[in-house]
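Hey,

Quick one before I head out. I ran the complex with S-adenosylmethionine overnight. Inputs first:
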Amino acid sequence: MIDGGVAEQRAPYDHRFHAGNHADVWKHVAWLSLLAAHKRERILVLDTHAGRGGYALPARGGEWTMGIGRLRQRFAGGSTGSGAVDRYLARMPDPAFYAGSPLLTRNALGRTDQLVACEHDEATAEELRRAVADDPRIRVRREDGWAAPFPAEAGARTLVLCDPPFHEPADWLRMAELGQRVHEAGAVGMLWYPIKRWTRPTSLHHALRGRKVPHVAVDLLVTPIERTGHSLAGSGVVLIGAPASVLVELHAALPVVGQALAHHEGRWSSRSEAYVP
Ligand SMILES: C[S@@+](CC[C@H](N)C(=O)[O-])C[C@H]1O[C@@H](n2cnc3c(N)ncnc32)[C@H](O)[C@@H]1O
């Protein structure tokens, strides 16, 4: 349950069903832009909720058809007009396979960069270990990503990606706390969240302001919010300590992704908010 106040008993979250959907597209366009902005620095990355690494896409149906499937169809190998979206599609060369955040990060790592990937679910963490077993720059930890220490070394930049399942309403509160830790550590962070209604994203932004965390939030809705029932209207990212070039890239990417993925009468919208104490 994302918007309700009562936690339900449910099966462990499985990202397979959502891989490549519109929310993954926006998340990974933004994450790759952030990684690219730091390509000349040594980076230490923490992926707090890493998932299994990659996902075989079903030949027929699936949420990906309304996400990366529509982007591919619309641009069919040509340039999208957005550097960030071109970069994203270039990192997804196999139409039958969707690379999750740890694999996308791996492709962006330099020789001395590192990735710490936390994944709480045992079977999922094991799959991720198999996917990246050959790479000494990557450590997979089967542990609670909310409590993971940030990797830090003198002269290196720490980047934190936080992408929880939001099965529990408490994840929204934990996200604000994590945002504060990112800021206080002088790290760069990207916090991703789903949008069904404005209530919880707005509370998250408010909580970050209350904690004096400078940030920019960039939300993309691919369906008018009043038209969604239980499905997502869109998703958003909070960027902390991100270079201005990322914000410029993402704002240029919004209409490209929005127009391609809008699925109600071509209607899409975006909302950005910046907070500097
Ligand atoms: C949305 S998926 C991650 C997708 C991945 N970041 C990507 O972009 O490819 C969320 C993952 O978090 C895992 N998870 C749930 N609670 C966790 C926790 N407290 N710490 C670490 N991982 C957790 C779930 O098992 C699931 O695989």
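The chain has one domain: 15-275.

Talk tomorrow,
K.
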